[in-house]
Amino acid sequence: MLSRAQQLPILVAACVLLCSAASVTQGQTSLAELQQLLQQKAAFNETDFAALQRGESIARLAPVQDKREVAVSGLVRLRANADEFLRSYRDSLTRKNNGGMLEVGRFATQPSINDLQNLTLEPEDIEDLKECVVGDCQIKLSAAMIERFAREINWQAPDYAQQVTQLFKSMLVDYVRDYNARGDAALIEYNDKQNEVRVVDEEHALSRVSGYLNDLVGNASPGASDLRPVEQMIIWSKIKFGLKPVIAINHITIYKRDREFGPQVLAVSKQIYANHYFNAALALTGFVTVAGPTSYLVYENRSRADGLEGPFSKLKRRVVESKALDGLKGILEYSRVTFEAPVLAETETLSTNPAGGWGHRLFGGIRPLLWFLIISALIALLALRTYEGKANRATGMKQLKPEQR
User: Fold this and answer.
1) What's residue 403's pLDDT?
2) What is the three-state SS of 36-75?
3) pLDDT (0 to 100) of residue 224
């Protein structure tokens, strides 16, 4: 799909988590050594590790350097092997497992319009595009895309909704083809607001500040020779998301390396497009095995979203971070309980529900994980925006003279 040079930013991200884990899986490895590494390079502390020893999952906020950013890290012990984890993750990517995942699909190696045959646009989004201009648009698009909607759609025609849908799909296919050919150089520049947002800058910023991508990156390259991408794919999805369903495109790269106690697996999910809310997102999901053998799911997500600036920004951030932590802890706990289910029960489930399986039980519609982490937070954020608007209007009314009201 992408050349090795174009994969480099993703490869660096993948190297870090697995190489950091691999550094303690060589020689005499213990849980204490892994804990020491995570304590030094992530947000975990002794209290968290005590909870981990009791069989609990742990989730923490990770440091951020930008007020638009939310970052969380998590860790849980899993009773599973790497092949089970890899199979469950891969199978979950293109399956609609609950009502929250409205539509989902995968782009072929040579993307075509047929890859998006099941994608639909919301009527509200189509209507918003009527008034869309560069710098003032309700849909995240580039300037060229916005201008094409104004130029190529006959808004007076009875079938303008079908025209909009077809043009939107065509532009997404062209975008993915360009990304396949040029990598990060092709990432979109959002011009829906006055201030342009370059996704390549946002993604690189997320990589630079990541807890797993910071001090460790210098130690990643020497040991990365056996780290190999086993699969790449570009997934599109439409997710129920409060007031506005989100259409997103994510580049998924799965890496694997063989170690003394078993394979290590890491899935890197990089958002390359979202039509609402999100400017960028990077998620690392690692399956790490240490001596015992004991396996752990290590997760980190960083995303940059609209709406975390301006009035009430501190309150907004507290709400979003609290919901993100609760969501991540729920995901980790669900994963733990799932893999601790008796083998017999799993066998019975597979035999009576062949459409389910590990992918359904583990991920159950929470792919990509970043959506589930912030979905309830965005609802709260929208409520805060409504409250903010009412407060501003009330202030304006107080400032008016009685005869002006």
Assistant:
1) 52
2) HHHHHHCCCCHHHHHHHHCCCCEEEECCCCCCCEEEEEEE
3) 47
